[in-house]
Design a protein that fits this description.
Layout (H helix, E strand, L loop, with lengths): L1 H6 L17 E5 L2 E4 L5 E3 L1 H11 L5 H8 L3 H9 L13 E2 L6 E2 L6 H30 L12 H4 L4
Antiparallel strand pairs: 1-2, 2-3, 4-5
Length: 159
């Protein structure tokens, strides 16, 4: 049975075909998929966790993992991607990757997030400038100016 389920899922654990009739599944939103043939509803990992949290507010990642079968690593990834947020009254938090401050979701606290965005923008600008420089050199317009007489033998005949 586990092998059969694996065949129905893509790399993101989204149902590709219906478990009941093998029909194709259409995305309905927020991790929910509906069979085009029989109308069966199925969920990807995000949908399963979201549905569990709707009825069990404040659940820990360990509890969610135990009850849904989705690994704590995947749940933490969803928290880091800001798909969910740790409850305000929770005693557990994520740590900012910049300064270690406690945060409820994402990778960075607001201060480090601004720094990380600025660094990412700078890196992107540098990569774009390097790409433009590389493209100019490949087209020959940005290459060094040819020396006088270089290549002359290719274009003139010896008499």
């Amino acid at each position: 049975m586990a092998e059969n389920v694996k065949l129905n899922l893509d790399q993101y654990h989204k149902p590709l075909c219906c478990r009941k009739c093998r029909g194709s599944m259409s995305f309905m939103g927020v991790g929910e998929y509906k069979c085009d043939s029989c109308g069966f509803l199925d969920y990807d990992d995000y949908g399963v966790v979201r549905n569990y949290l709707e009825s069990h507010k404040g659940a820990t990642t360990a509890e969610i993992s135990a009850m849904t079968g989705i690994s704590q690593k995947e749940i933490n990834t969803m928290l880091r991607e800001e798909r969910f947020e740790i409850a305000a009254d929770s005693r557990s938090f994520l740590k900012c990757k910049g300064c270690g401050t406690e945060i409820r979701s994402g990778m960075y606290c607001p201060t480090c997030g601004k720094i990380a965005e600025a660094a990412e923008a700078k890196k992107r600008r540098e990569e774009e400038a390097e790409e433009r420089r590389r493209n100019l050199n490949m087209s020959g317009t940005g290459a060094k100016t040819p020396q006088p007489g270089s290549g002359a033998k290719r274009f003139t005949r010896d008499k």
